[in-house]
Amino acid sequence: MTTRCGYVALLGRPNAGKSTMLNQAVGAKVSIVTPKAQTTRFRVSGIVMRGEAQIVLIDTPGLFAPKRRLDRAMVAAAWDSVAGADLACMLVDAFRAKPDDLAEPLEALARTGRRRWLILNKIDLLPREKLLPLADTLAKAGSFAEVFMVSALKRDGIDRLLDAMGDAMPEGPHLYPEDEMTDQTDRMLAAELVREQIFMQLREEIPYGASVETESFKDLADGSARIEVTVYVARIAHKKIMLGEGGAQIKSIGSKARSQLERLLERRVHLFLNVKDRPGWDEESARLRALGLEG
């Protein structure tokens, strides 16, 4: 049988549901998800098999107005993903969608000349009489070839979407083993799961000023893994908050991240977290390169 394989870039405003959709499509947690916007900082790929077709889904940082160097690098990474994709999908939160707010990214995507689809997400939150006019307005604004309606959280419409993506992929050999789910390394997953817990457990200003890096990942003789992760905070005052009284806060972050890692890696994990203050890291070329956001 003829095999197919290609890249699909998932674009959208922050909190459109790109990471949730990626995880649902893959059937495992490969991209972190939090209620806060701008959680995804770099492209994360999930690998999905649909018959003889292999789809490499690329979760990208949300499209927003950048202010810091980090912000600009994140938005650039999203658009760079489109350049190498066989299909670009604009994911829109149907419940909160405002056509005027989406005009700029829709026009920018149209200018790329890439084959593009519109995916309206969270359709379970919007009455049908409002959903259809919204779909028509956005489809015309972005000149989309196809429109799909899904609820990523409930997995409604996901299988139909993936089948269509599989059919749309170009003929060619598979790029990854059929049982592989992501191109992320275990080191990257460890850092991201710690960062997810920082977003979930700490106040608004701290998560965006934190960067997480896996310093060491060792396989032990008993089959377990010893992982050392460093959390860099942008303000000296944030280090005390990150640690918590008697180290309670960082212990809670580490405990929940470790549990997630053990489920994903299917083995015991010994996770050690360090916290260091590094003011201005979000303007440093070296840190942005470490995050994969600058060459």
UniProtKB/TrEMBL annotation:
Location comes to:
Cytoplasm; Cell membrane
Q: Which UniProt keywords apply?
A: Cell membrane, Cytoplasm, GTP-binding, Membrane, Nucleotide-binding, Ribosome biogenesis, RNA-binding, rRNA-binding
Q: Which domain of life is it from?
A: Bacteria
Region G2: start-end pairs: 38-42
- Which Gene Ontology terms describe the biological processes this protein takes part in? ribosomal small subunit assembly
- According to the entry, every stretch annotated as the KH type-2 domain falls at 202-279
Residues reported in the UniProt entry to bind GTP: 12-19, 59-63, 121-124
Where does this protein have coiled-coil stretches?
none
Annotated Era-type G domain ranges read 4-171
| Region (G5) residue spans | 150-152
- List every stretch annotated G1: 12-19
Q: Which Pfam families match?
A: KH_2, MMR_HSR1
GO: which molecular function terms?
Answer: GTP binding; GTPase activity; ribosomal small subunit binding; small ribosomal subunit rRNA binding
Q: Which GO terms describe its cellular component?
A: cytosol; plasma membrane
- Which residue stretches belong to region G4? 121-124
Q: Where is this region: G3?
A: 59-62
Q: How would you describe this protein's topology in the membrane?
A: Peripheral membrane protein
Q: How does it assemble?
A: Monomer.
Indicate the family of this protein: Belongs to the TRAFAC class TrmE-Era-EngA-EngB-Septin-like GTPase superfamily. Era GTPase family.
- Please describe what this protein does: An essential GTPase that binds both GDP and GTP, with rapid nucleotide exchange. Plays a role in 16S rRNA processing and 30S ribosomal subunit biogenesis and possibly also in cell cycle regulation and energy metabolism.
Q: What is this protein called?
A: GTPase Era
Supply the source organism for this entry.
Acidiphilium rubrum
Q: Which gene encodes it?
A: era
